[in-house]
Design a protein that fits this description.
The protein is an alpha+beta fold. The protein has a domain of 54 residues. 37% of the residues lie in helices and 12% in strands. The chain contains 3 helices and 3 strands, in the order βααββα. α1 packs across α2. The relative contact order is 0.15.
Length: 81
């Protein structure tokens, strides 16, 4: 039977990352990390939430905003004559 709640080691294996990268990303608030909750002192993820988050990432729903201001369209040149 598959566990419903996973912790950092299981998430690291699932995402193909190291445990330290998961911990660092959680502290930094990385956009590629699924939403988590705390159960006492432990950081937890619900397995179906992780799978749904990964599917949404594939669909492009969790694309981080690009910094800076938006570009303006270049002015058009009008020819007289």
């Amino acid at each position: 039977m598959e566990p419903e709640i996973i912790h950092i080691p299981e998430l690291a294996k699932l995402l193909g990352r190291s445990e330290s990268s998961i911990r660092s990303a959680r502290q930094a608030g990385a956009a590629w990390l699924p939403p988590y909750f705390k159960q006492g002192a432990r950081i937890c993820w619900r397995l179906d939430t992780v799978r749904r988050f990964l599917k949404e990432c594939e669909e492009g729903k969790h694309v981080p905003a690009r910094p800076g201001r938006k570009r303006q369209a270049p002015p058009t040149l009008s020819r007289v004559g």
